[in-house]
Amino acid sequence: MKKSNITYIVFTMIIILILSNIYMNIFYPKIILFGDKEYILEYNSDFKEPGYKGTYLNKDVTKDIEVTNEVNNQELGEYNIKYKLRKNLFTVEKNRKIKVVDSTIPDLNLKGDSEITLCPNEEYKEDGYEAIDNYDGNITQNVKITNDNNEIIYTIHDSSGNSNKKIRKIKREDKEKPKIELKGSQNITLNKGTKYKEPGYKATDNCDGDITDKVKVTGEVKSDTIGTYKITYEISDNENNENKISRTIKITENNGNQKKNDKVTVKEENGYSTCGKKGVIYLTFDDGPGPYTEKILEILKKYDVKATFFVTKNGKDSIIKKEYDEGHKIGLHTYTHDYQKIYSSTENYFNDLELIKNRVEKITGTKPNIIRFPGGSSNTVSRKYNKGIMTNLVNEVKEKGYYYFDWNIDSNDAGGVKSKNVEYNNIVSNLSKNRGNVVLMHDIKKVTSETIEDVIKYGLDNGYTFDVLSEDIVCHHHLNN
Fold it and tell me: Who contacts 6 (Cβ-Cβ below 8 Å, separation ≥6)?
């Protein structure tokens, strides 16, 4: 073939291509996709269309493009968005590929503390954990747990290969000293010749439990020699934390029969004026709260008079709280008021006192330190159950920080008085401005609730003042046991 023919053929083909391209650009529809042709879409996220454009015969025909969106953002996988444009005999299509994936790490939460202190001999009890994945849901059962020295490692993987890890640190130590609890009283007074019997003790440790058998007891009590003795109790746990406590035993002369008769009189002690300040009336109520306590409180409030209530286990907590909130003094009387029980031993007495102390402390938030013995310190009924116990008790309550109070005026409302006139005369006829006047009454008695207003009126009209008992007042009977 001649060279000129070849040149002609090539030229002709070029012309045809140029004309075809011009034709396609002018007469063939076109779709233009903005953005990328492939996208990664996070699970449960919405795809934002970047946009597209359609042209035909140099005109904008975007509105004629048919879009088919097959994307399901709730299922992982690959999807297409199809774009189709039809014009006359021509149809053009384009695709955009969307891949829905899960790249979010699962949540892993530890229940309890992430740092825990345990005893050296204590096994860790799992506090719990939870793993939640945005796609797989609850996958707690797939958590793998490993122990590495003093760390517990929690690892979780979801179905897409995303992982999370948490660490719980375990610290093993014991810096708490063991506790020693003495049974009976910590301060005991015995008459000469009375053999000391160990009331007992108990030792417990936060890590080792009951270690009573490890207590070392030292000390000696000579029951036939007057003096003060000390018994020491020492304990050490497995981590060498130590504790020590002592019990004091006093051996005194036998003065159980301090007086041969049972006459109740009041004595003066330590230079204080007998039963308080001169011309002051100290209204005291025992055995409550009772059915008439609130009526008495109303009368006291009416005249702005404060009184002292020696309470028991009886009545509602709210009444004791009201007594306290209205400015009255709360003292301890007894929990059970069972003479046989509380006066059979000093241990029983203080166990009973502890119960009523705990009640008052719980209600008022304060630690009461004034008390009145059931029957008074001069009672003789205690002889039936323990000879000389009152002599021991008056000493021991002082050593424990308590102040005990008797009285120098008895309303006799507990002795059978049923007439308000009789009770009134029992009180006002014995009042004196030359001393303090501690009046014994009982707020469980109806007659007292009927008498108290007249007593207050008499006191106010005749120049007396009213007050509550305080630690600087001494009002003690002579002991009869």
Answer: none
Instruction: Provide the β-strand partners of residue 172.
Output: 118
pTM of the model: 0.49
CATH of domain 266-477: 3.20.20.370
For residues 377 and 210, what is the distance between their CA atoms, to the nearest angstrom?
39
In CATH terms, the fold of domain 179-252 is: Immunoglobulin-like (2.60.40)
SS3 label, residue 465:
strand
> What distance separates the 2 farthest-apart alpha carbons in the chain?
163
Output DSSP code: residue 271. T
Q: Which CATH architecture has domain 3-101?
A: Sandwich (2.60)
**Rounded Cα gap, residues 125 and 112, in angstroms:** 11
Tell me the CA distances in angstroms from 206 to 27, 154, 182, one per residue in order. Answer: 93, 29, 18
Q: Is 38 helix (H, G, I), strand (E, B) or coil?
A: strand
Distance (Å) of CA 113 to CA 119, 129, 139, 370: 16, 11, 21, 45
| Placement of tokens 């003795």 in the chain | 229
**CA dist., res. 126 & res. 168, Å (int):** 10
ω into residue 199 within 30 of 0, thus cis? no
Please list the rounded mean pLDDT of every run of 10 residues in the chain (481 residues). 64 64 70 95 94 92 94 94 92 95 96 92 91 95 91 95 95 92 77 82 93 95 91 95 91 49 45 74 97 97 96 96 95 96 95 96 94 95 94 92 94 89 92 94 96 95 94 90 90
* Strand ranges (E), 346-420: 370-371, 403-404, 409-410
